[in-house]
């Protein structure tokens, strides 16, 4: 039986992170490198290299453009996966709590913040893409991570309302995602596929 250290070891594995210049993409790169993987990063218009073992799809479009939302948040991942079917072992798709539940628009009252409908619809599509691919591409493991709101200097009124709805009483940080990424990218989750790992401090339980 392998040890936890052996199960989480990614030495020799080749990983691709989309949206690597973003906050979540950055922590994904850091996590995979810490576990020993060779990591490349791309953004939307970059050339996609082949023969990867692990894909972490963090690229995101937040806005009301339906075509762009679906293209970046879901379709991009699908095409990368199709191009690497012969080598992929694990796929992590980043969805969101707003791919699971409807928005509470009262959180945004009095701020310039909003919650675009195309974003939520595309993130819900990411979860269905994950389920579909998990059942059709096995033994490639396809899972998702759905983060809650991540603290990024939002207006104080929004933060207070959000934290009051969260059992753990705070917004997420990028560091909160490291364990989920490590788990789903490695053999720690060797018998897990089609799963949505929710990292939201309990927000969606209320």
What do these coordinates show?
Helix content is about 35%, strand content about 15%. The protein has about 210 residues and is an alpha/beta fold. The protein has one domain: Rossmann fold (3-Layer(aba) Sandwich), CATH 3.40.50.720. The chain has a six-stranded parallel β-sheet with strand order 2-1-3-4-5-6, sandwiched between helices. The protein starts with a helix and ends in a 7-residue tail after the last strand.
SSE class: alpha/beta
**CATH fold name:** Rossmann fold
Sheet bearing the most strands, described? 6 strands, parallel
Give the oligomer, counting copies of the same chain as homo and different chains as hetero: single chain
The whole-angstrom Rg is 17 Å
Specify the CATH class. Alpha Beta
Portion of residues within helices: 25-40%
What gap, in angstroms, lies between the N and C termini? 39 Å
CATH homologous superfamily title: NAD(P)-binding Rossmann-like Domain
Please tally the helical runs, counting DSSP H or I stretches of 4 or more residues: 6
Q: If strands are numbered along the chain, what order do they take across the biggest sheet?
A: 2-1-3-4-5-6
Order of helices and strands: HEHEEHEHEHHE
Average per-residue pLDDT, rounded, comes to: 96
Number of domains: 1
Instruction: Give the beta-strand count.
Output: 6
Shape: globular
Assigned CATH architecture:
3-Layer(aba) Sandwich
How much of the sequence is in beta strands?
Answer: 5-15%
Low-confidence stretches: none
């Amino acid at each position: 039986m392998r040890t936890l250290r052996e199960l989480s070891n990614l030495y020799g594995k080749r990983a691709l992170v989309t949206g690597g210049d973003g906050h979540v993409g950055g922590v994904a790169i850091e996590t995979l490198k810490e576990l020993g993987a060779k990591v490349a990063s791309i953004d939307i218009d970059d050339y996609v290299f082949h023969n990867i073992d692990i894909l972490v799809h963090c690229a995101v479009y937040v806005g009301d453009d339906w075509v762009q939302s679906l293209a970046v948040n879901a379709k991009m991942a699908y095409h990368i996966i199709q191009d690497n079917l012969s080598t992929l072992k694990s796929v992590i798709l980043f969805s969101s709590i707003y791919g699971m539940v409807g928005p509470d628009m009262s959180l945004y009252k009095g701020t310039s913040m909003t919650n675009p409908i195309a974003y939520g619809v595309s993130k819900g599509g990411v979860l269905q893409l994950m389920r579909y691919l998990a059942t059709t591409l096995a033994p490639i493991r396809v899972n998702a991570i759905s983060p809650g709101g991540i603290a990024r200097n939002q207006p104080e009124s929004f933060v207070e309302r959000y934290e009051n709805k969260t059992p753990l009483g705070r917004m997420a940080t990028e560091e909160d995602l490291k364990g989920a990424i490590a788990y789903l990218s490695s053999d720690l989750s060797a018998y897990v596929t089609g799963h949505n790992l929710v990292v939201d401090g309990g927000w969606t339980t209320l």
